[in-house]
Amino acid sequence: MKSGILVIDKPQGVTSHDLVAAVRAQLGIRKVGHAGTLDPMATGALIIGFGQATRLLNVIVDHDKTYETTIRLGQATQTDDAEGTVLPSPPQVVERIERVTQSQVENIIANHYTGNIQQVPNAYSAIKVDGKRAYELARQGQVVALKARNINVSEYSLLGFKRTVADNGQAVIDIQARISCSSGTYIRALGRDLGRELGVGGHLTYLRRTRVGRFDISNVSLSQHVLTAHVVPHTFRDREGLYQTKNKAILDQDRAQILARAISLVQGAKMAMPSLPVSLEQAQALEHGQFLNLPLTEPAAAVLTLEDKEEHLIALVEPRGKDTAKPSAVFPFEPTYNKPIQEASGKQIGSR
After folding, report:
1. What is the pLDDT of residues 268-283, one digit of tens each?
2. Could you tell me which residue ranges the tRNA pseudouridylate synthase B C-terminal domain spans (predicted)?
3. Is 174 a catalytic residue?
4. In CATH, which of 3.30.2350.10, 3.40.50.2300, 3.30.930.10, 3.90.25.10 is domain 65-208?
């Protein structure tokens, strides 16, 4: 398999790019990318494409996502998660946290943080401000003012409500939640804003992504494709000759096992977007960048089915006018055997 989609259950303590590097090392190819960053603290579904499947990543990254998280109410941190420094709490926070109830939290979530809302991303995020990442400016002590953006939260379910004590002896509340949301939503910001709304501060102590579009690692039917990894310390010498140690991701599967669990290019495309059956004549037209006279209302994957039921991804197409489909990305068609090609109808079109 030269191209495919990998679903990796990312471990805590490494970046998404670390997993991309691990895949490159195991498969021995450079053309590898991921669809949506997970912070080092986060675990769960990381979708990685290799070969021609990297061209599907821009489609997959825009899909809605589902997370499981723990939000600690009563403490705010510099980064809005457990990796940041705990910020000083106002004197009233002790009394306020005692008065917070589960029904109060549920009402605030339902009235303020569900549906179409505006969200200001975290200062410690990868959003670019004047050509620089926001987190780089924040680490330099600069005030980062990010604009609010429109997001959609389709589910924000409270799964648990527990009063506990933080490491510094402060009374806090840990709530467990499941959140389904549009692409571009910052779960850290949802935790931050809930704490602010209650007047007690809040940050994430746990975050796990379980779903990206139809790639749901909690679904039994996808379990045979899920890859796992572990984290090891890696010591190296930097450009200045100093030794540094950082975490490194190691896949638990070897090359053959990775390829055996990979989702094929055509199946990955069909999971990422609607599919459009095309004939061999239409496939050949798309390969040459020609438009098709087909009514299309949304982007789709043009798929050719051969007589032996083998499917091939020909192109990604998008609407152009009322009754025209335009190829936005074309995939080389490589038949398995050098013999006349027949589509599912049995019609023979030349040979390759």
Report:
1. 999 999 999 999 999 9
2. 188-229
3. no
4. 3.30.2350.10
